[in-house]
Amino acid sequence: HMKSVYGVKTLGAVLAQQAQRAALLFWTYTDTSTQFGARRAFLDSFSATVLALGIGYALFTLRRLGSALNLGWLLTILFLGCFLTVNPPFFPRLAMLVVPAALLGAVALDRLFNSVEALLSGWSRFLGWFVPGVVLTIAFTLTGLANWTWYEQTYKSWATSNAHLARYLAAHPDFHAYSVAVPF
Questions:
Q1: 39-86 confidence digits (pLDDT tens)
Q2: For residue 91, which of 20, 31, 84, 146 is within the disulfide window of CB 3.0 to 4.6 Å?
């Protein structure tokens, strides 16, 4: 099946495509599922960049147990849930990636925050925490708004007819609908 999907003839070419999709799922490839159908990469650009920094930091601090376990957690899910499956990346199978990706990103942000704080604290203790705090607040706000806007647009377009009917009825509170169950 995957040979025809990728348009290749050998098992090696299929495995190369699978590895590429597993490695770049956070940045490039979109969801192949019909259940969720996110037509974008697993992470937004800010989160994907922070994750890349977190993976790099984990690789450089691999001797620390937390780094090794978190990176192993992420790679195990990528291997089992993406590389060894059909039609990757299938986001419902990969939902558990959110936690290790968030932890790796949080470590990267923590290291960046501490580095900037140490650099600016030489001039002023207030600037040391204020500047990186404001930058992170702005970044989180803009990322949250962009993700919310994407979700709102996608949520409306991927609704079933039952969901559209329910939304219509919810938008008209003075309209009363009654349903009668038909016995079988």
A1: 788 899 999 999 999 999 999 999 999 999 999 999 999 999 989 888
A2: 31
Residue 180: φ, ψ to 5°: -115, 125
Q: Which helix (H) or strand (E) holds 32?
A: none
Q: Which residues contact 52 (CB under 8 A, 6 or more apart)?
A: 26, 27
Q: Which residue in the block uniquely carries the two structure tokens 């499956």? A: 85
H or E element in which residue 74 lies: helix 65-78
Following DSSP, what letter does each residue of 106-131 receive, concatenated? HHHHHHHHHHHHHHHHTT-HHHHHHH
Note the pTM of the prediction, 2 decimals.
0.75
From the list 106, 96, 47, the residue with the least C-alpha distance to 76 is 96
- Write out pLDDT tens, residues 72-131: 999 999 999 989 888 888 888 888 999 999 999 999 999 999 998 888 888 888 888 898
Residue 67's contacts (CB-CB under 8 Å, 6 or more residues apart) are 57, 58, 59, 61, 107
Length of the chain equals: 184
Angle CA(159)–CA(34)–CA(4) in degrees, nearest 5? 150
Residue 183, judged by CB atoms within 10 A of its CB (0-12, 13-18, 19+), counts as exposed
Give CA–CA dist 148/159, Å, rounded: 16
